[in-house]
Every structure is written in structure tokens, then in C-alpha cells.
Amino acid sequence: MKQNLELLMEMLAALPDPVFILSESGRYVALIGGHDARYYHDGSHLVNFSLHDVLPKELADWFLEQIRQTIEENRLRTVEYALGAHDVKGLELAEGPEQDIWFEGRIQPLSNPVDGERAVVWVARNITERHNMQLQLKNLAELDELTGAYNRRKLMEALEEKFAEFKRYHHPTSLMIFDLDHFKQVNDRFGHIAGDKVLTAMVKLCKKQLRQQDLLCRYGGEEFAVLLPNTDLEEATQLAERLRKTIGQYDYHKELGQAYSITVSAGVSALCSKDKIESLIKRADDGLYQAKASGRNCVIAKSDN
Ligand SMILES: Nc1nc2c(ncn2[C@@H]2O[C@H](COP(=O)(O)OP(=O)(O)OP(=O)(O)O)[C@@H](O)[C@H]2O)c(=O)[nH]1
């Protein structure tokens, strides 16, 4: 009997991933396993502290909510979350992983109370590698490799999404399409690699001007599009003008080895009730075409009539 118990204890201690017993009020009742310092920090000091003693309030509240839901639903639940060593008070920072860790938490309610309280068992597994890989795949699928702007596929996806939202809620939504003027001359004069640097610098410049919600995409070659949620045609035109001026005033000395400025031409359109995605794009494209035809370095807004 004693031998069996010893074996059980040894087996539990050897568990590669940390297993926490957490009470409904957020107390760390016990911690078993998880001693591999390549993947985990030593959390043994946490026992008998409460979540709010060691975690920032927002995180502690989130953990408590997960415990509460698991007990209420009385079933296994799986959650994913990030935790940095600096988030947890009292950890030995010199030991364990340096970067933020992504965890998968598998939370199971216990059938009997612990010290008079309902409790869960929370198995935490380091999934940082998998998470980073997923992020990398997502970036590969969504981003233009050269400039870091979103790619055309992402633009079409976002347009579908915003179009559906527009039909439901009628939030104003606009599209700007712009193209660098006489860009062939840049390539011819400075070479294709220098041209690449100009495109990359220009995207950086635009990102600084745009809001978090705006989606800057490489539409093709030296043509870009910006999807502007919650923006009507007038506001979109103002924003396009601001971008045009900012890009035109930038000196590509660093990229081209001499003072050089490049202008852009742009077309702008806004979703209207009888629109399809294609007609929204076509109006912005028509605006761009007109801007080129009327001497470049300007913005033409195309309304739906
Ligand atoms: N360096 C570089 N150049 C590119 C890339 N994609 C497209 N281009 C170049 O962009 C240029 C586009 O030329 P055109 O379509 O004649 O247009 P433009 O010279 O900009 O003239 P307008 O648009 O009429 O003002 C071509 O020289 C393409 O090779 C790229 O990824 N890198």
C-alpha cells in the first residue's frame, strides 16, 4: 500500500506539465509537476496564495472567470492564454523561459470540495511553438512579403466582411486605391532592388498615417488599396489627400542614395446601398484612372451617381 502511494506521488511529481488545483475563490491549493525549466518557471511558491495576490487584476479576474464557468458547466474546458514571467509576482526570473509563454489550459471541475470549497484541476501546457508557427502561417497567408502590407487575398476577405456589416448596420465604409507615379523611371534609373526599398519605405510611411482599423494592402505591383471602415467618402478623400501629401513630401534619399521624391495618384469610393464589392472597387479604380489622366499627383473621389 505504502509502495503504491509512493509510486503515485513520484508519478505525479514527474508530470512534465504543471497541474494546478485552484479553488473557486482563486486560491492555489496545490501544484504538481511542471519542473522542466526549458518550458516552465517554478511556480511552487504560489501554493496558498490567491490569483489576485500574484497576478495583475485583469488577468486574475480572467482566471477566476474560467474557474467559475468550468464549475458552473461541470465539464472539461480548454482555453488559450499568454503569460509572461513578469506577470507573476515572485517568480525566479533567471530561470525558465525568457519570452512570454502561450499556454493551453485544460480545466476540469473536481467532484469533491477541497477545504470546503469547490475547485478545479488546471493543466497548463506550453504551446508557444505551435502558437508562433500558427502566427507565421497566418502572416504568410495574409501579408505581402516585400512590404509587410496586407496582400490582395486579405483585402478581398476584409471587403466581404465589411460589405456584410454595411448591409446590416450601414456603417460608412470607403476604399482608396493609389498607385505610384512614374515608378518605372525609379526602377530604370536606380534598379529594381532600390525600387523595392522605395515600396517598403512608402508602406511604412502610410502605416504611420493610418488608423488601427484601416487596412493597407498591396493590390498589385506598385498599386495599393486602403480599406477604410467607419469612414464616409468625404473623410476618405481627406485622408487620401493627407496620404498623398505625406508620400509626396518624403525624401527617398536613404533608399536611393540621393534626394528624390515620388508622388501618387489615387481614386476613392464609398459603399452605397446598391453596391456590390466589384462596383466599389471599380469606382475607386476609375478615380485612379482619372487622376492619372489629369496629370497625376492628385485624388479623385467617385460617388455612386
Ligand atoms: N522594384 C519593384 N518594381 C515593381 C514592383 N512591382 C511592380 N514594379 C514596377 O512598377 C513599374 C510600373 O510601371 P508602369 O505600369 O509603366 O507605371 P508607372 O511607371 O508607375 O507610370 P504611371 O503609373 O502611369 O504613373 C514597372 O517598372 C514595374 O516593374 C516591385 O515589386 N518592385
UniProtKB/TrEMBL annotation:
Enzyme Commission no: 2.7.7.65
Q: Name one Pfam family in it.
A: PAS_4
List the signal peptide residues: none
SMART domains attached here?
A: GGDEF (SM00267)
Q: Which Gene3D superfamilies match?
A: 3.30.70.270, PAS domain
Classification via CDD domains: GGDEF (cd01949)
Q: Which domain of life is it from?
A: Bacteria
Catalysed reaction(s)?
A: 2 GTP = 3',3'-c-di-GMP + 2 diphosphate
Q: Which residues form the GGDEF domain?
A: 171-304
Q: Mind telling me what this protein is named?
A: diguanylate cyclase
Annotated source species: Bowmanella denitrificans
